[in-house]
Amino acid sequence: MSACDDCLRRGFVLELLAGRIEIARHERSGLRDVLALSDEQLVKAVGGEATRELLGRVAGFHPDRHRARTSAASLSPVCRHDDLFPPRLIDDATVHALYVAGSERLGALTDPATPAVAIVGTRRASPDGMQTARELGRGLAAAGVTVVSGMALGIDAAAHEGALEGGGRTIAVLGCGADVAYPRSKAALHRRIAAQGVVLSEMPAGATVHRWGFPARNRIIAGLAHATVVVEAAQKSGSLITADFALELGRDVLAVPGSVRSWRADGTNSVIRDGGTLVRDARDVLDAVVGPQMAGHVVEAFVSPPDDLEPEVAAMLEAVEGGVRRTDELIAVSGDTYRALSALAELEMMGLVRGLQGGGYERTRL
Q1: Taking Cα atoms as reference points, which of 343, 338, 344, 339 lies closest to residue 360?
Q2: What are phi and psi of 143, to 5 degrees?
Q3: Most exposed of 130, 222, 244, 338 (fewest Cβ within 10 Å)?
Q4: Does this model's pTM top 0.70?
Q5: pLDDT digits (tens, 9 = 90+) for 7-46
């Protein structure tokens, strides 16, 4: 895996001008117009009084030092002139180089013959929305589909977690350096995705977060996927930006419907009203994206538990698998209310069981 000097310089320029791009994108017609500028044009467009100094710094770019920095962060650079550059991004001339963690899996997860689906939604997700995103991620990954998202709180993180449970076919696209866990609370998830899937960014190693980086990464999320599924989104949610980018690329946009009384469903219901496909589960997504023949590949099996479950937690899991559903019955199995509820809460956090409407629990399936 390699990247040419010119494409690497683009990453250097984006980091150098990051603070100025935030201002410029509001003064021009849109972020894509800003990112479509050449390096020199971009510096002149946003540099202001510092333009001459900035042009000098760009002229003094040292590609070997940049590569060493990238390698030190355990990232691999790949540019649009490399055979391993994701084929679905080739048509987007604004994406020059990617910095990748888990690069040995990049080719398999972005193979043009392999379906890929983006799952996006609000950071302030409901428990039901989180469960839906997790189940979608799990079912799609288990069926061999690559799940793409932005590792944000809420829907994004839940989709990645589900995909990891379903086999690990997932790509996290970040608006900061791919070696930077953002948000920090998702550092463990970042490590798991880097170990089992792929984390990538167009920003160099160590690059910090700027607001424009979120819509910028959204265009990459949409570009990597055959289709985008929106799960819970307010009317002005950033996830709808991803949906808009997908539509611009001629890709399918799907949405999970919600209550007309919920602000979390304003965006998703609007997507459906405007012609987006309504989906309820992974089968609906597979049916829409790759046809009914693929929908049958959703695996009907229990999510595998880790080997190191505490005995009380394992016993509670066994009870749920055995058909005990009601909470009072599960407490009776344990004989201790606090320990039973603690075990059930732990199992739910691990995605091994899920709560039912009206009370009770059931085993989570792939």
Answers
A1: 344
A2: -90, 5
A3: 338
A4: yes
A5: 999 999 999 999 999 887 665 447 888 899 999 999 999 9
